[in-house]
Amino acid sequence: MTRQWLADYDFPEPSRVYYCDQSLYQKYLNAYQLAGSEPTIMIDDLALKMMQAFAALMKYRYPIAKAIRTRLALYAFGHEQSPAWPLKVALFPVWPLPNWAQFGMLIGAEMASWEVCDGTGFISCI
Hints:
With 126 residues, the chain is an alpha/beta fold. It has a domain at 17-79 and 88-111. The chain is 41% helix and 12% strand. The chain contains five helices and three strands. The protein has helices at 3-8, 24-35, 47-60, 62-69, 100-111, and strands at 40-44, 72-77, 94-97. The chain has a three-stranded parallel sheet.
């Protein structure tokens, strides 16, 4: 994933995005380390797999999963509707994000004041 790709798809401020190149499971561990106690928004086109990976985090790293669950949200990029949770219970909110224009409408005004790379407020993992 490149910043140019984000720019090509009209992502607001692609230069201010933190990238997670690791496994899906590792993305949550990175979010936990970088965000501290701040709310964390993750964006991924593999939303269902991210949801499944969180179940693995619950199994193997429960204290971390418990710590981030209440302040975590996932935007399902490229989805018109939110994917259904593969578990009996929704562990955190998952919202559809058909395109970057929708993202700008959802949180665009707030994003200007968010710090990205130091982990205080917004982490985007694609």
